Amino acid sequence: MSVLCLCLLTLATVGTVLAQPASVAGGIINVPVVVVADQAFQIELTVVADTNPVEVLVTGAEELTAADTTDASIFDGTSLSIPTIDVEGTLYWAEFSVLSTDPPAFVLADVGLLDSNPPAQNCTRPEPDNTNGPDNPQLFENLLIPADEIVDGGPGPDGIPSIDSPLFTQTFSPTLIQPADLVVGINIGGVAKAYPHSILNYHEIVNDRVSIDGDNQDVTLSFCPLTGSAVLWNSIMGSTDTSFGVSGLLYNANLILYDRETESLWSQMLEQAINGPELERVPEKVQVIETTWKTWLEMYPDTFLLTIELTDSSFPYEINPYGSHRTDNRIPFNANNSDDDRLHPKERVLGINVGDSSKVYPVNDFSHSISVVNDQVGNMDVVAAGSSGDNFAVIFNRQLEDCTTLEFNSVENKLPIVMVDNEGTEWDIFGTAQTGPRVGTQLQKTNSFISYWFAWTAFFEGAEIHE
């Protein structure tokens, strides 16, 4: 977002302008120099009458060909910081937040006399862990996990074939997918994609490509049918072959991937390399949503759906190869803490790790419509939103970069918007602000994903269960 796109009118570019104090006259705020990335603008803001807090509309802008940016105002995409405003001889500083883009408008977020300091940022926002494993893990002969706990799943390397050239369709036939079928969904760069469980059951890995900030990026989506867990990783940058394959090995009944560049082994639920040249490397993680096809299609009707029409495979995708595994009590293969019966082994839970703290939120414990939990896990303030009826659950860090900790309530019948904060901003299922003072802001992704209970407690012993 830029000042230019917020403007109602863009005038011709002008020459050198000094970063003088902003001035107010007749309900008009003139800001001589505003820096947006590597561009500079002069903008005009018109105060909206009878608004409290004060709202302003962007009514004009001129791109500057040269400008003195010393002490200039700054727009970072969500906030406009004006260091000096002259109001009838008294100098103030002011912070404005984006209110809307249509019409382009800001709302006053904070203001003070120039001879008083702006409020200090006295907090340090807790950052998500890079890995689900310990910070200083014990190594077992160049392995991150005990060798005797790695088992052969049967098919061997690439015996379960990954999808390396995925094809998508926007023709959704009942023979391809049913409303209640589960999918793993992503929405990156405004492009939504859905990957059906029915296909992932037979392939487990999809090596795909998405556009992130205008750049093509290789990504890998993995789904383990045995543990009910799905994660998305960015590619290993600098690799000639960025793809992953199914190793045929399991740890705690969970998928172990291998990267085709170095043949290192990677634990899906630990989300890091457990052996080989990439040992202890942690991939960059991207948010996914696991829900029903009906819910996903309601939220993103223009979605692309992974199709099986040209996968050169004769798998019977309409049949679950794992039979009643999703609902029975049986725990396949070896898994730690298999006697932790606080929940049904196949209860689908949204789990999160923060430092030494681990907590789960059973998906079925959310209300049938949408419910929200403002919570704290470890030292992190989080918000969990979910729906047992629409079959989804997500969790984000609710403390923003500016140190504001938000309080949330649920929003019903407005998918993909799922919650609203105490400032009036509405947020979608991916944690992106869609309307209100913080439109465009992104809640921070946490170290979290959905899995079966037996798998979560196998990896993260003693996890707290939200009640």
Number of strands: 35
Principal-axes geometry comes out as elongated
The oligomeric state of the chains shown is: single chain
What is the C-alpha radius of gyration, as a whole number of Å?
25 Å
Low-pLDDT parts are: 6-16, 117-121
Tell me the helix content: under 10%
Describe the protein.
- The chain is mainly β.
- It folds into 3 domains: 3-113, no CATH class; 147-306, no CATH class; 348-465, Rieske Iron-sulfur Protein.
- It has 4 helices and 35 strands.
- The protein has helices at residues 3-6, 197-203, 293-299, 453-459, and strands at 10-14, 22-25, 28-36, 39-47, 55-64, 73-75, 79-87, 90-101, 104-113, 150-152, 168-169, 182-188, 191-196, 205-212, 215-224, 229-234, 244-251, 254-259, 265-267, 272-275, 285-286, 289-292, 304-306, 348-354, 357-362, 371-377, 380-387, 392-397, 408-410, 417-421, 426-428, 433-435, 444-445, 448-452, 464-465.
- The strands form 7 sheets. Strands 1, 2, 3, 4, 5, 6, 7, 8 and 9 form a 9-stranded mixed sheet that branches. The chain has a 5-stranded antiparallel sheet with strand order 10-17-18-19-20, with no helix packed on it.
- A hairpin with a 2-residue loop joins strand 12 (182-188) and strand 13.
- The protein is elongated.
List the helices and strands and how they pair.
Elements: H1 3-6, E1 10-14, E2 22-25, E3 28-36, E4 39-47, E5 55-64, E6 73-75, E7 79-87, E8 90-101, E9 104-113, E10 150-152, E11 168-169, E12 182-188, E13 191-196, H2 197-203, E14 205-212, E15 215-224, E16 229-234, E17 244-251, E18 254-259, E19 265-267, E20 272-275, E21 285-286, E22 289-292, H3 293-299, E23 304-306, E24 348-354, E25 357-362, E26 371-377, E27 380-387, E28 392-397, E29 408-410, E30 417-421, E31 426-428, E32 433-435, E33 444-445, E34 448-452, H4 453-459, E35 464-465
Parallel strand pairs: 1-5, 2-7, 3-6, 13-23, 25-35
Antiparallel strand pairs: 2-3, 3-4, 4-5, 5-9, 6-7, 7-8, 8-9, 10-17, 11-23, 12-13, 12-22, 14-15, 15-16, 16-21, 17-18, 18-19, 19-20, 24-25, 24-34, 26-27, 27-28, 28-33, 29-30, 30-31, 31-32
